[in-house]
Design brief:
The chain has 315 residues and is of the alpha+beta class. The protein contains eight helices and 16 strands. Strands 7, 8, 9, 12, 13, 14, 15 and 16 form an eight-stranded mixed beta sheet that branches. Strands 3-6-4-5 form a four-stranded mixed beta sheet. A two-stranded antiparallel sheet has the order 1-2. Bound molecules: adenosine-5'-diphosphate and magnesium ion.
């Protein structure tokens, strides 16, 4: 299939959206966001053998997860996603069926979150499959929830459960897994509603999505805010995965990435559920820099960021 017919295929399947004045088919997309809003823009690579493997991940899953990465970043700012862009590079010989199913997965997420695919680029790669997704969102002027707002005394909260995605990778290394037993890996849902809910009420002082792992993402908040953190190991909501389901190891919940939950700090009372998603308090922000893990028996350990970092050879 040539570039033109691939774009046609995508174009035929895309739905419009209120922010898109002109979408696929012109030199640029024309977007219109509400007056008195700030624009949010995020871009994320999804690279074969770095973020997915063709033998592990069905094409629909790759497409869905690709867009989820961007939606999750918008969620972490408390924003509303308005439009998405897909730049796709395919090596020669990628089956048409793979591309069809990839696009179907991506557009399923786009439909579910009502984010129109408004453009992109298509090219032949020198090897493998690479996708870059840009998501544009918006938030009322000055209201984006930053990483830098955490203050000593704030409590630390996380949505959902952690470690479920990393547990799937660990199992995939050993053999086949049933996607249904590892929902958070194969079908993660960006916490867009929860992020907006928190932002509207001014409840989150700082927020980030858990894409690299709790330890690494919490360190980002600490560094940007100039504070430290005390985390209670026993409070961390660990994912239940597999068949029959089993709670993941603490290490996976602490350092495993790609759960796309929201990690945020607050000086106010947070309900046990936000936009239908459970929220758990896992610790507090401290004046003293550095991160501390309080074990269930009360012993204290330094908490070192050991989540995903590129160029460090995690795989
Ligand atoms: P240009 O030469 O200006 O880059 P293209 O031929 O690459 O134009 O793209 C034509 C139209 O198709 C543009 O509107 C572009 O945004 C859209 N497009 C190209 N590739 C993709 C893709 N992978 N996904 C969505 N839209 C795409
Ligand atoms: Mg182009």
């Amino acid at each position: 299939m040539g570039e033109k017919s691939l774009i046609e295929l995508i174009r035929r399947r895309v739905r419009g959206g209120s922010a898109v004045v002109a979408g696929i088919g012109d030199d640029c997309a024309v977007l219109r966001v509400p007056a008195a809003h700030d624009l949010l823009v995020t871009t994320d690579f999804t690279l074969e053998n770095v973020h997915f493997r063709r033998e592990w991940h069905p094409p629909e899953v790759v497409g869905w997860r690709c867009l989820t990465r961007g939606l999750s970043d918008i969620a972490a700012m408390g924003g509303k996603p308005r439009a998405a862009f897909l730049s796709l590079a395919l090596e020669r010989g990628v089956p048409q069926k793979w591309v069809d199913r990839f696009v179907a997965g991506l557009l399923e997420a786009a439909d579910e979150f009502r984010v129109p695919l408004a453009g992109g680029d298509t090219a032949q790669s020198a090897g493998g499959i690479q996708a870059d997704v840009v998501v544009v969102g918006s938030v009322p002027k000055g209201k984006a929830v930053l990483r830098s707002g955490a203050r000593p005394g704030d409590q630390i909260y996380v949505t959902g459960e952690l470690g479920g995605s990393a547990a799937a990778i660990a199992r995939l290394r050993e053999g086949k897994v049933r996607a249904a037993d590892y929902e958070r890996h194969f079908h993660p849902r960006a916490r867009v509603e929860a992020g907006q809910w928190l932002r509207r009420r001014g409840l989150a002082s700082a927020m980030i999505d858990v894409s690299d792992g709790l330890s690494t993402d919490l360190e980002h908040i600490c560094e940007e805010s100039g504070v430290g953190a005390v985390v209670e190991a026993g409070a961390i909501p660990r994912a239940r995965v597999g068949h029959p389901t089993k709670e993941v190891a603490l290490d996976l919940a602490l350092h495993g990435g790609e759960d796309y939950e929201l990690l945020f700090t607050s000086s106010q009372k947070i309900p046990a559920k936000v936009a239908g998603v459970p929220v758990t308090r896992i610790g507090r922000i401290a004046r003293r820099r550095g991160m501390v893990l309080v074990l269930e028996d009360g012993r204290r350990r330094r908490l070192v960021a050991r989540g995903w970092e590129h160029f460090k050879g995690n795989w």
